[in-house]
Amino acid sequence: MADSKLIQTIRHNCDISDARDNGIYSICVLVLKLRNLYKWEHGIEPWQEPESKDLLGWIDAKENYWKTIAKEPYLPLDIRGREEDPFALSVTNSLLAEDGLVYGAGYGRSLKSIFFLAEKIRDDSVEGCPVVILGREMARELSSPFAMLQDGTIIIRRDPMRFFFWDHIQEMRSSSQASLHHALDRYSIFTDGQLDHDAFRRQLDTIVDAEIPIFIYHEVGEMRQHTFDSNTLRKIISTFPDSAIEYVSRAVKDVLADTHPDGMVSFIIRERRDASLGFFVGFLAGLRRVLSPEIIAAFDLFLREGDWGLIEQARIASREKNLGLAERMRAIADLIDVEDKAQVALRFSTEILAPLGLEPPAPRK
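Above: the chain sequence. Below: its structure as tokens.
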């Protein structure tokens, strides 16, 4: 078990990250993330709602606290008398291994820092890739991605995944109803056109555990697709943070991971995972949905015909289209150190964003 000082240090670094970069979220998204952070801090299950007065008071206090620490540097970690950089993953995890803990640090959307500390449930290996499944968490920040790559290891954070499934199913968009209804029906918790909320609560952990493999295969696809590599993405994000250029870049990279021959969609097809297909299509949102019309259309036909060949054809078509998009984006990104930033932004706008029907990025002040 980690000592309380280490936990508090990691939590403080989480607070600094949130203080610095909470502005990357819209007001609505920020409130939802704060609500889930409140639930985690207070040991509340995803389906339990706090008193509005308590939640709003906590949010107000949190935001006031952020103002006092936003300019602080991240604290070093004190582990068994050794002081380590908060981004020194390898040495930190080697020191925590005997306690059954895993520490995470990295960068997410708009290069927001990510930190977490969690108990390890088990080690695994999928397609030759090391996998670690994590359970109870002792430290986390606002974004809390539930699947990620860390030093060549696939990390699955089960606790944030529980909140993800609960929130997205409770608040399903009209565009995702048919696919999510299809998935939930396979778990016998969607009957007579209605979600059985009691059954959903009882089966949430069953669903999460059963669907963990599809997210592992997303990360396998991420590791094995090289057309749009992480270095190119980092260059784009550092130059155009929190912009349409960043969001499209991330979405293309995600679609290429999902549609990779070793990625999520191929795994779903190969294993004939009916419910997983419904969840995959239902969770496609925003730009990932814009970039995947072939799969959306194929799923509608699949519901009528049950032909997995339709999904495979759509996977291939989607992948080929997004590979072309990625190659054009990489070529433009290669000009970042050559041309003026405004000229590069114009290239992204006219060659990438406009054909997708997106607005050009607003200039950052």
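The longest strand covers residues 113-126.
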